[in-house]
Records
---
Amino acid sequence: MEDIEHIPKEIQLVDDSGRRLDGRALDELRPIRIEAGVLKRADGSAYIEWGDNRVLAAVYGPREAHPRHLQDPARALVQCRYNMAPFSVSDRKRPGPDRRSVEISKVAGEAFAAVVFTEQFPRTSVDIFIEVLQADAGTRCAGITAASVALADAGVPMRDLVASCASGKIAGQVALDLNKEEDNFGDADCPMAVVPRTGEIVLLQMDGHLMEDEFDRAMKLSMNAAMKIYEMQKEALRRRYVVTDAEALLEERGVDT
Amino acid sequence: MSSEVVSELMREHIVKLIASGKRADGREPEEVRKLTIEKNYIKTAEGSARARLGNTDVLVGVKISTGEPYPDTPNSGVLTTSAELIPMASPTFESGPPRPEAIELARVVDRGIRETKTVDMAKLCIVPGEKVWILFIDIHVLDYDGNLFDASSYGTLSALSCAKLPAKLTGGEDQPLPLDHWPVSVTAAKIRRSIVFDPGLDEERIADARLTVTTDENGDIRAMQKGLSGSFSYDEVRYVISTARRLGNGIREIIRA
Amino acid sequence: MESSTPQRQLVIPGELIASGGLKSGEGTYSEDGKVFAAQLGLRSERGGVVSVIPLSGRYIPRADDEVIGQVVDLGPSHWLLDINAPYPAPLHATESPWRVEFGDTAKYLDIGDSAICRILQVDETKRVQVTMREQGLHRLEGGQIVEVSHSKVPRIIGKGGSMVMMIKKYTKVQGFVGQNGRIWLEGNVEDVMIAIRAIRLIEEHAQALGLTEAVKEFLDRAYAQRA
């Protein structure tokens, strides 16, 4: 609550020229930086800075699913754990899962299950860990975006990456990618995640109040932004796997099999 | 689960190397891994640091608020240390309530800080018996490659050294924490008859006994913890203490820089 | 060999890698006649099939692969081996080279021991069976095991086995490279350590140009220092 105290009650989230408090236009993303392969122990990992959000994602698996009674004889389980570090928010958060993080973990895991080729790995689990180190609204979108890069880094077979972004409504106007102040004082927030190649929506949540045409505009903003985020995800993976001499590797494969 | 079974070949190999004064990663027995510290890593914390000891990676955040003192120490601030061994950091870490390993880790780091009177708790009293500064130290392990005690101790001291008492809670200007001492822990592992410092993951997994010694800038001993089912002779304890003091001086310079 | 133009293109899951005329191979999937990458890796085209050679990922057992397993559990007439895969691999006493009395399994292989074995079969649900009843399959005694990603194994073996032969020639260590990314090295302790460093060099620079030269130079220097 202390954060709210020093912000005036009648805060003007959008000025007359359509600029937001942090200087962004209504359809502008915060700066995003993604790095793939940042942890040693995990099979795959990624780090994302998204505005003032800082989020790590790691993937283990496919590995033997535990406890055994959870194993699915037909496919891999895709399990996600979204967690906020105690120091990631202004008022210290008690360690461990709360209802919000359990819910986010569930819908994020389901979004990834939509793209992973789970039937190739019966009885295993693909475990995705999202750790929010510093939060500034939009952590689930940042986390899903990073986790998708971590999945690819881990070599997990999947149909496509998943790109995630939110749009909402502030000061009566539809706007892309709300930051914390906008989220606190805005009218609606609508995070989504999409399979960029096909446009399939694999995560969708909304809270607040939107007219149907506002929702359409919000989704259009998010879709466009997700395509930009998709390019950043691929760019991060390319930087990690710079190929300088692929021919040699290919030739060796030919010899050895 | 399977990863917890120690390979006999690995055990024999490390034992054979150590008996001839060598280590699997090429270090000398008394050589610690490269330590890098990034202070002020997290904006949402009043103090923070990311400490990397080799590939072990720990993020420590200090959250500071105000509240009532404990009835038995009305003139003293409150300090609480917690550690989370999140499943992102190792395939052997599981989610759930803190296990004994995490609690031991938090308590050993806490003792090093508390017993040294690193933070002058009397100066953290605002109104005796009514209002004092409350410090939450949270140790977030991101990548586990051996020797969490030392990485966490270095991260914690670094985070405290850059922490600010937030003026927004009491008025005036942000004040640095009153730090009086610089305790540094050094951990030794005993493998058969040999002792190595700053054990790596494989060394830690086959160690018979472990000893952590925290010394201050005067070379005085401030906290100790012996672990695992093996034992040390008195001479070995003396050797570990004197080596910990010497190695601690170099580490303290890195943290104070 | 027919001339197939090697492509050096890094592909990412979901990327279009063939829009017609090519069959969908490993690491790919097809939709409406188009082929897409299913895994991060290098695009490869051979004999009308387009596939993706992975650059990371867990080892998934395939029949006939020779792997290094580590005993993680045992029963009266079988052992359970960890083969660095998501699936544990049972080894039945009848597939071992020994005549094992009921309940005597630990006498031959105990928990923590390692052995070279061959994947006998993998069924539809990925249940794995391994055997040791063949030439060259045996319990490992002495030496050390290093683990790398299974995707790096071809690079460590090298063209026609050239890389691994070079390391053996310089270091005089004996070894075995398992398809599951476990490598066994046995010899003088210092030589084994040099061999491990050479393997780590290959692992870190698996995609580098002139890797063989770099490894040769490393080995030359390592032994010049010791001479």
---
Amino acid sequence: MPDPQVLSLAPAPAPTGAGVVASGPRRRRFSILTRRDKIVLLVIVGIPVFLDIAFIWGPTVASILFSFTNWQGYGGITAQNIVGIQNYTFLFTQYTLFWPALIHNLMWLAFFVFIASPIGIFFAVLLDREIRGSRFYQNVFYFPVVLSLAVVGIIWELQYAPDGFIDSALGLTKQTNAIDWLGNPSLNIWAVLVAASWRHVGYIMVLYLAGLKSVDPTLREAAAIDGASDVQTFFRVIFPVMAPINVVIVVVTVIESLRAFDLAYIINQGTNGLELLSILITNNSISEASLVGRGSAIAVILLVISLVPITLYLTRVMRSTGE
Amino acid sequence: MTASVIAGRPNRRRIRKGRVALHAFLITMSVVWLWPLAWALLNALRPLSDTIKNGSWSWPTTLNLNNFINGFQQANLGYYYLNTLIVVVPAVLIVLLVASLVAFALTRVRSRVNLFLLLMFTAGNLLPPQVIIVPLYYIFNWIPLPSAVADNGRLYDQYIGIILIHVVFQMGFCIFVLSNYMRTLPKELNEAALVDGASLFRTFRSVILPLCAPALAALGTLEFTFIYNDFFWALLLMKTGSKRPITSALNNLQGQFFTDQNVLAAVALMVAVPTIIVYIALQRHFIRGLTLGSTKG
């Protein structure tokens, strides 16, 4: 998704000053390109740029434009289709699924930011030290990362089913008082968040471990000589020098939670307590109805929210790549 | 000296105690982490009749592979694996080729343009796919294609459409990673090749590309997993259920095995097999791929 798909991360400048040293005065390179070379370069870059505009940025702009219309997917769009901000006012005031979906997205975000990612960081910090079996533990925690969210959903359905593991372990049966974890609209979002975290924790752990490896070991030694405890060393020394990775973790976490779709969809098509902005977009405009305007308005709201982490990330890329 | 030995002893004991607690914690967490998978496997190995008779929380009386065999046949899994293959192999190869070409070309253009294009590609990859899906759906229905390429004359509901959107969407990430990687290569390499009279393309193929092999292996593994695991694009852009790649097909298969959770568990585990192989055999590359974007080089 793309999972999570997945996902791209910022380059981290080395925590030492190495990056600064490397970028000296810029030289004019490769001025000996022939005319033919230049044309080849233009084609090589031009086609992907065209595709990127045609299939990503074009549709992004189109989503914004569609959101001001009541177009239903067929026929041309005429002046009569333009309805101004009507789709937005409808979402905010009358569409009963919108606020629950937005709140679920924010819950997803909060759960990932305050629970799943910190657990991943905690695992990374524990496993970064030289302990026996560190590799084994790492392999266990990162295993769910290779699984698709669709598979993750089915695996966890077996845990949460009324005759599944959790109810059985709690001694609840179908006949008596089984808790329907995925069917109960006030519980199921939490159940799904636990399943989503099962995968997210490993992802964050892998990223953070890579970052920790690049931390100058003398920092730790110095802290130890100064008599700092492990906790102090982490919060006062390691965490601050990990700032570039911390930004990456935040960006990955926020974007993953805004992209949330697969898990809720495989469990119940994102209904009955599992509404998400992403699913409302497709349900309104493609799968169930062709209310292009309404789905696009939701898409624009999702876009605006995701611009926050994207901008954060891009400024970082610019700072570290630019000069 | 005596003093330090005496002082050292309780300290060491404290460390050992700490270690024991640490391992106890990590082992507990490992069990928690592996449990959902172990449970799925246990269910997949039991006949449904056994589960119904004794409840799912019971010692299994029979364990066999029948759920796997029946699931594979009833769900036509072989067929869906093939659908996935048709999408994943070209998509991964094309995205790596395109991205390495673009990354190479970007190292040759002035850095302002370079930076702008990098930002554009990367930002495109960060957008939630749902932001662009509605217009994309109509664009896929609207662009006419010759019937030799797509039998319905559209990108919609065609493998070529799914491959295209994977390539376009993943391109940003790959370009970003590869251009960072290429920047770490010594600049003199390019210049030496030019002095030797190598053409631009030859420099790319014989000098730069071989040096990028580790990055390409890591990205290839990662992209294989990403695209294999894609649920969203094929769900929305491939209408015909029987043409869907295996991960998206799970949506329908789930309905098909609604009455038999144990077969469904077996099917889900079989769907996960290729990614589990990646986990076991290509783990190093996968992790490197994940972290390539976050740390330089």
---
Amino acid sequence: MRDPRSSWASPWLSGSIPVLVLAALPALLFVGVLLYFTLWAVVFSFTDLELFGRKATDWSFVGIENYERLFTRRGFLESLWTTLTFTFFSAIVGQSVLGFLLASTLRRYRGSMRGTIEVCLMLGWLLPDIVAAFLWSATTSKTGLVNQVILGPLGVEPVNFLNDYALQVVILANIWKGTAWSYLLYSAALDNVPGEVVEAAKVDGANGWQRTRRVILPIIKPHIGTNMLFITIWTFTYFPLIYAMTGGGPGSQTETLPIFLYQQSFSVGKLGYGSAISVAMLAIVGVMSIFYLRLLKEPK
Amino acid sequence: MADLALKGVRKAFGGLEVIKGVDLDIRDGEFVVFVGPSGCGKSTLLRMIAGLETVTGGEVSIGGKVMNGVPAPRRGISMVFQSYALYPHMSVRENMSFGLQIAGMDKAETTRRVEAAAEILQIGDYLDRAPRALSGGQRQRVAIGRAIVREPEVFLFDEPLSNLDAALRGQTRVEIARLHARLGTTMIYVTHDQTEAMTLADRIVVLRGGRVEQVGTPLELYRAPANDFVAGFIGGHTMNFLSPEQGRALLAGTGGAVPAGAKIIGVRPEHLRLAEPGAPGLTGRIDVVEEFGEFGLYHLTLDEAPEGHREITLKSDAEGLGGEGAQITLTCRPEAIHAFDDKGAALAAGSPAGAGRADRPSEETRHVR
């Protein structure tokens, strides 16, 4: 005799229908709100709605014109490429690899050095984006710390890094800002690797690199997947730091999709086109998430 | 195969010294068990032999070569860990081949060795399963298999049975003994369980607080413990410790005497007997009887006993001892007495220590009974 409800309802709720309904209400409301906003974006992506002027009130459906523009007009594909570069180097290579290296190195140490480095990492993470952006701009400007303290004494002409190496500086800034998260997550993951398993590999003759690649990394693979999922989504949609540092410039060198979306929607005022960009971003992030979720799955 | 020597081996973690100078010679092919309570340093000592802990002082040598600075894989050792430490993402076969693969052994030889080990351990059927699909006992075999395929000079076991249930533990114990008989390799085995030590060892090393308390064959340790600690630790049922007066009372009807200078008298539960009716002895009342079938354990409270010496345990298969609440009188043979001085060191008992104790057939026969 199986209660049909038991297949989906949590057992301590399924006993009483009123409790079940009551417990489900906030969740339903939340899902509803989420769907409402997403639908709003999807619907407007098929319109020529604008922020100002006549089309702000008198808009009409234009079919898939906005989506065609994504591929035919300059802007979107370039911005997508910038975003992918930014995400790949700052999140996947920078934060994740650096975070893992720090976590695996520092776990051997106890005490003040580890504490100091952890506090420094956290400071980057906790500092408000706008403050961080200002600090990075000031440090890398023509009269900033890097030029004054490092390049000047070496006899090198002052360089305006934010002008000449904008994307590189923004990537570095985001690595500095976000590594703490990867560090924390990988530290926790490495705590879950049994010490005796690593020692067994040591006795088996595996050197540090072999132990890492063939024993430790496979064991923490689900954690790597989780981390990649988070930091890819965050970095892909990351707005304030870049916007405050460069505003997407110079030119459109650092114009990642969120900035492109913001410019198109609120500077240019094309809300319909902006909606199409956001729906496209949603699709891209969704595809990447599916890829990482497959990593998370335990093998059979 | 190789012999192994420890010379003045010391280990300190920061300022805390956990191994305080251990000297030990282990012969080629010998099965040596390190036994002691938790925190005695037995696992640390094993890990130092394995090369997983650095040596703070002294020398560890295997096969005549000093191994202090040599990394674990080049010491010719294999280790079986308490948690089995199987690689969770690899199949049984991959677990066993991993070390050989790292060493660059060719595929055919690797396969041959893995299959030979699987045959010995009867795990051939699970070679392609993941460790998580195996029971505790099966995992244990895989861990041993992984150690075997490396064909080491010395096997190291770190409490390998402590995660198994009692029935499986007994069975695996016998299998490890068989494995030793079959391979003839030097084995060092760490345990806190004196039964494993007694049943497996050629020689037992009893450790306490980072020092060796005694080294000897199981029977030597059972018959002639060097001090009260070893006496209390070795033996299936914990030795009774009595005051000298109680010892004299126990021996009153036998003509035996408590050695001069004795502060503590030890007597094993299996060596106590019921006194003849009317004969003198140590009297007490039975509180609890634990009936095991082939024998019973009688826990008594002694009459007029000093603090700390109120209770005594008797192991007997005699019938008619009486149930709970019965008043009985105990005695024992003078040779079965262990006497210890105020520092706990063993004194010559009814007969001289050493040779005298080694040939005490009566004890042996009663023990085997």
